């Protein structure tokens, strides 16, 4: 027994084991303490052993305290017995002696404590489960409340690194790496400074106001009209605005439970970590069913998924309007297992909802937003929907099993960055 306990403690001290426990815990749909007590044996690696170890330590401590209290109560009884016999021998009042004994506050407290200790549960209780998670709380990876367990932002970042490493190990060797160039850029915009024109500067960069002022200041004596010389030409410096704006839209309708939503959580965390390392990039996370809501990536681990119908048009519109003011290469990954079937909270059926999605996809095309629809199911309606998008050249469609979702999205994200950097280098 002692050897088994030592091995359990050793295993639980390894960083990979802790990350695995945190990963399993984050993917539990019900994170209440009562559910952890029931499901931890099957759902969270190592947590049940930790809780049992805490239960054993609690029972051992309780047993030691109980023996101490028994000894204290026995000593009190023996002391009273001696006083009782001495009182009887000296003609004391029996009733008064009994009342003194029974009314003693310390005696009553010892008996109550012993009675409470006798009802200690032998199995794992809520206190043991919370103590089993104490190390995660101390590291600020978890928060525990009466409602259950919540993953902290720091815990989410830890999981993001853990998941990204797992996905990275499974990526195709030819698609890994972002192949940075010396400078990165997307688009060209006028800056706030200007300089003298040099040979090779494009004419569209000429600063007309500065050029006109230069000609006026130089002037031509006796000539009424303004005359320009090459030395009057000024050009605006350009600003290269580098950014890839990613929209990750995750279907939270009722059919997206289990492995599908867990795979979506994984890709959300992995993408957030990749984008954090490319500081100019940005990710917007939206969950959608009949309604659309935007979340910070770490909140997805603690979200309660609403279920319901699927408003894909509303999700696409929400991202488009959110990034309307951004100067960026905008790209969407819409992850769903269900065909569109509602708009504005109302069920309208597949045919009508598809028309709305096509209209929104046309707007995406006009505004230069890349639409990627990642389907984690292959129902007939989904295949028909994919065919409509493909025939109209309105977006790219991927079919992926939940276990392959992370690889598909990550490889495409890396290809996008590589193409963008190669274009800049050219």
Biggest sheet statistics: 6 strands, mixed
How many beta strands in the DSSP annotation? 12
Q: Which percent bin holds the helix content?
A: 40-55%
Strand content: 5-15%
Order of helices and strands: HHHHHHHHEEHEHEEHEEHEEEHEHEH
With helices defined by DSSP (H or I, 4 residues minimum), what is the helix count? 15
Unreliable stretches (pLDDT < 50, length at least 5) are 1-15, 174-189
Give the class-level CATH name of the largest domain: Alpha Beta
The CATH homologous superfamily of the largest domain: von Willebrand factor, type A domain
Rg for CA atoms: 35 Å
Features:
426 residues; alpha/beta; Rossmann fold; six-stranded mixed beta sheet; two-stranded antiparallel sheet; 12 strands; 52% helix; elongated; disordered N terminus
């Amino acid at each position: 027994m002692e050897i088994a306990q030592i091995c359990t403690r050793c295993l639980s001290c390894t960083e990979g084991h802790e990350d695995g426990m945190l990963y399993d815990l984050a993917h539990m749909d019900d994170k209440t303490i009562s559910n952890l007590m029931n499901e931890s044996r099957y759902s969270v690696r190592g947590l049940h052993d930790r809780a049992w170890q805490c239960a054993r330590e609690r029972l051992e401590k309780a047993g030691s305290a109980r023996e101490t209290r028994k000894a204290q109560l026995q000593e009190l009884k023996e002391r009273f017995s001696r006083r009782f016999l001495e009182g009887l021998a000296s003609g004391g009042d029996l009733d008064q002696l009994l009342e003194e004994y029974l009314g003693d506050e310390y005696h009553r407290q010892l008996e109550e404590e012993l009675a409470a200790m006798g009802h200690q549960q032998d199995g794992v209780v809520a206190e043991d489960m919370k103590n089993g998670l104490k190390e995660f709380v101390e590291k600020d990876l978890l928060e525990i409340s009466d409602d259950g367990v919540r993953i902290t932002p720091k815990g989410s970042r830890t999981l993001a690194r853990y998941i990204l490493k797992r996905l990275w190990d499974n990526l195709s060797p030819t698609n890994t790496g972002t192949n940075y160039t010396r400078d990165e850029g997307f688009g060209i915009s006028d800056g706030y400074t200007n300089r003298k024109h040099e040979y090779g500067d494009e004419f569209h960069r000429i600063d007309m106001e500065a050029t006109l002022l230069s000609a006026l200041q130089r002037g031509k004596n006796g000539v009424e009209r303004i005359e320009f010389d090459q030395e009057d030409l000024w050009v605006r410096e350009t600003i290269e605005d580098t950014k890839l704006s990613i929209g990750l839209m995750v279907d939270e309708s009722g059919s997206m439970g289990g492995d599908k939503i867990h795979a979506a959580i994984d890709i959300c965390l992995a993408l957030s970590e990749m984008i954090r390392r490319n500081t100019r990039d940005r990710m917007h996370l939206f969950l959608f069913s009949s309604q659309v809501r935007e979340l910070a990536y770490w909140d997805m681990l603690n979200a309660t998924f609403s279920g319901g119908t699927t408003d894909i048009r509303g999700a696409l519109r929400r991202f488009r309007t959110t990034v309307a003011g951004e100067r960026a290469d905008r790209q969407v990954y819409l992850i769903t297992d269900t065909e569109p079937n509602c708009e504005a909270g109302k069920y309208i059926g597949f045919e009508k909802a598809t028309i709305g999605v096509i209209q929104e996809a046309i707007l995406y095309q006009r505004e230069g937003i890349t639409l990627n629809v990642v389907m984690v199911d292959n129902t007939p309606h989904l295949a028909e929907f994919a065919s409509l998008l493909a025939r109209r050249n309105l977006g790219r469609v991927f079919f992926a099993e939940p276990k392959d979702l992370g690889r598909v999205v990550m490889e495409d994200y890396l290809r996008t960055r590589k193409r963008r950097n190669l274009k800049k280098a050219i």
